[in-house]
Write a structure and sequence with these properties.
The structure holds 2 protein chains of 2 kinds. Chain A contains no helices and 11 strands. By secondary structure, chain A is mainly beta. In chain A, strands 2, 4, 5, 6, 9, 10 and 11 form a 7-stranded mixed sheet that branches. A 4-stranded antiparallel sheet of chain A has the order 1-3-8-7, with no helix packed on it. In chain A, strand 9 and strand 10 form a beta hairpin. The radius of gyration of chain A is 14 Å and the shape is globular. Chain A starts with a strand and ends with a strand. Chain B is an all-beta fold. Helix content of chain B is 0%, strand content 51%. In chain B, the strands form 3 sheets. In chain B, strands 2, 6, 7, 8, 11, 12 and 13 form a 7-stranded mixed sheet that branches. Chain B starts with a strand and ends with a strand. In chain B, 37% of the residues are buried. Chains A and B meet through strand 5 and strand 10 of A and strand 6, strand 7 and strand 12 of B.
């Protein structure tokens, strides 16, 4: 059974940093791209970025709203994906979802974690 | 960026009736090289993460009831629920993966009339 479990969310002050983790199980983690999406309270879904599998170069792409502030990485030996967030803004407040990304270079998201809430507030 | 626009924003349908949600992309999401539409549909129930229903515009994900179907090509797509059940009350989102940034529609709230 595919499982994705996010951790690391919480309350953080504007301008500070936070790292989220996504621990995966139930599938060959290294064979898949992994992605992050977020949902602000009462709002719709926003794609944050993804990291491709090593077979597809391990390249990373980001939404413009987070590029230069957020960093996605992965540790295939531990089946964990990370989202390092820096220079956080109040508008980054959201539930952050880890997703498995299905495809070659472009992806739909076939499994989602339960999400972890990040609140950016002073 | 490709803008995804769903209609309507909310919809109330009687149990057992058909529900139709539309999604329009600001540019075509059909790749001519493989004739595939890079369009997915998701269902999100309150307090839960989204769940994949449909990909490649019309391919139903494993385990999704066959009352859910997707259609359309190019820029205009439709998610149809043929006979609404109480458990289908949810938000529904379309998403394009034709290019990055991958973008979602604003969502359609489906309720029981």
């Amino acid at each position: 059974e595919v499982q994705l479990v996010e951790s690391g969310g919480g309350l953080v002050q504007p301008g500070r940093s936070l790292r989220l983790s996504c621990t995966a199980s139930g599938f060959a983690f290294g064979d898949f791209a992994m992605s992050w999406a977020r949902q602000a309270p009462g709002k719709g879904l926003e794609w944050v970025g993804f990291i491709r599998s090593k077979a597809y170069g391990g390249t990373i792409e980001y939404a413009a709203s987070v590029k230069g502030r957020f960093t996605i990485s992965r540790d295939d030996s531990k089946s964990i994906a990370y989202l390092e967030m820096s220079s956080l803004k109040t508008e980054d407040t959201a539930v952050y979802y880890c997703t498995r990304a299905h495809g070659d270079y472009l992806y739909y998201f076939d499994y989602w974690g339960q999400g972890t809430l990040v609140t950016v507030s002073s | 960026d490709i803008v995804m626009t769903q209609s309507p924003d909310s919809l109330a349908v009687s149990l057992g009736e058909r529900a139709t949600i539309n999604c329009k992309s600001s540019q075509s999401v059909l790749y001519s090289s493989n004739n595939k539409n890079y369009l997915a549909w998701y269902q999100q129930k309150p307090g839960q993460p989204p769940k994949l229903l449909i990909y490649w515009a019309s391919t139903r994900e494993s385990g999704v009831p066959d009352r859910f179907s997707g259609s359309g090509s190019g820029t205009d797509f439709t998610l149809t629920i043929s006979s609404l059940q109480a458990e289908d009350v949810a938000l529904y989102y379309c998403q394009q993966y034709f290019n990055t940034p991958h973008t979602f529609g604003q969502g359609t709230k489906l309720e029981i009339k």
